[in-house]
Design goal:
Layout lengths: L1 E6 L6 E8 L1 H16 L4 E12 L1 H16 L3 E5 L3 H10 L6 E3 L2 H12 L4 E5 L2 E7 L6 E6 L15 E3 L6 E7 L4 H4 L4 E6 L2 E6 L7 E3 L10 E10 L4 E7 L4 E2 H8 L7 E10 L4 E4 L21 H4 E2 L9 E10 L7 H4 L8 E10 L9 H11 L2 E7 L4 E11 L4
Parallel strand pairs: 2-3, 3-4, 4-5
Antiparallel strand pairs: 1-2, 6-7, 7-15, 8-14, 9-14, 10-11, 10-14, 11-12, 12-13, 15-23, 16-23, 17-20, 17-23, 18-19, 18-22, 20-21, 21-22
Helix pairs in contact: 1-2
Amino acid sequence: MFEYSIDGKDRPKTLILRGRLDALSSAEIQKVFDQLIQAGERTILVDFAEVNYISSAGLRLLLFVQKQLMTVGGELLLFGLASQALEVFRISGLGKLIHIASTREELMSLAHEAGHSKAIETNVGEIAIEYIRLPAGRGSLVTVGSQGPLSLAEYTERDVVSVKPADVEFGCGLGTAGEFYPDYKDLFGESMIIRRSLFFYPAVKRPQVDFMMASEGDAHLTYKFFNGFGFSGPYKFLLSFQGKDGPVELSSLAKALFEISDANLIGICLLAESKGIWGMRLKQVPIAANRPQNGKDIFHPENFPNWMDFPVEPTDANHIIAGVGIAVRQRDLLRTAIQSYIAEGNAFHIHAGVFERGPLSKMAKDFESEATRVIRELKPFKVQHLLGQSRFGSGLIGIVELQES
C-alpha cells in the first residue's frame, strides 16, 4: 500500500510519503517528482515519517531525483526517517549524497542555503527578478549582409557573408554552414550563434536542426549568412526571472530588462522553460532560383503561406528554450542598419532553439554553467524567430550592454 500528499502551505513544498517505497511505487512517485520539478520546484522536502519500507529501487529513484535537482542548483532534503530506513541509507552510502534530518525545522536552514543567491531581488510588474551586476563595459554590435534581397527572394552567392566564430560570440539571422555554395545554398534557415556555436534550421520540407560547436580558438571555421547581426562583449547583468502569478510573456520580459539596465540597446542570451512558444520560420530559402513566379514579394498574402511557417497556436510547452537577440528601449535612436532588424512597434529581435524537456536552475549565478549544459548536452529540435506572445515559466538571462554606433 502506497500513498502520498503534498503540503504546499510553506516553501519549499513538502512531499509526504506513506507506506512502501519500492519497485511497485517508484514509477508513481517518479511522476510526482517530475510534476513538482516542471512546476518550478528546485528544493523539495520529503517527509518519511510514515514510510515503513524502502527497497533498492526506491533508493535508486531518490538518487536519480537528487542528481536531476543538483544539475539545476536544487536539492532533495529528507526528514522523519525511522531507524530502519536510516540504516538502509547508511549502508547504501546515499546518506552522504542527500541531506537527512530528524525534523522539517532542522532542514529549513539547509533549504535556505540551497536556494540562497547573492542576487539583488526586485519585482517588475508581475515578474520577480533576481540579478547580479558585473563590472563590465559595453560590448560591440555588427550587422551582417543585407535584408534587401529577402522580400523578393533575390539572394545569390554574391550576398553570402562569412562569419568567424572567433569574431562573434552571439548572433542570429538567416544562416547555414558549409564550404562550397552549391552544397549549402539550399540549407539556409533561421539561425543563432550562441557562445560562438552555430545552430541552424534549414528551410526545407523536413528540417532538422544542425549545429557547429566552436570556441574562440577556431581560426579556420566560418559560418555563412545572407543577413543577420552579431555581438560580443562581457555580461553586465546575470539574472533569473519567474512570473509571480503565471507565465511571463516575452514582450513583457523584454520591457522589464530595461528596468535593470539603463542602456538603450542590449544583447540578450536567454535560457527559459517554455510554457508555449509562438515562433515563425522560413519554409523556403529566398534565393533567386526560388523567386515567386507572380512577381510579388514573399510576404504578400498570395505567397505568405508557401513561404512562412506561422503559428496558429503555441507549441513546445515544458521544453528548454535557448535564445539570442537584441532588445531596444528607443528604436528611433538606433542606426538605420540596426533598426531594420527590429520591426516597427516592436522592441526586440530574438532567435531561439527549442531543446529537449527538462528543468533549469533558478539561480542567476548558474547562468554560464547552464548555458554550457544546454547547448552541449541537450538535443535541439528547431530554431525559430520568437514572437512576443511566447511564454515562459522561469529562466535565466545574460545581458550585454551594447554600443549603438
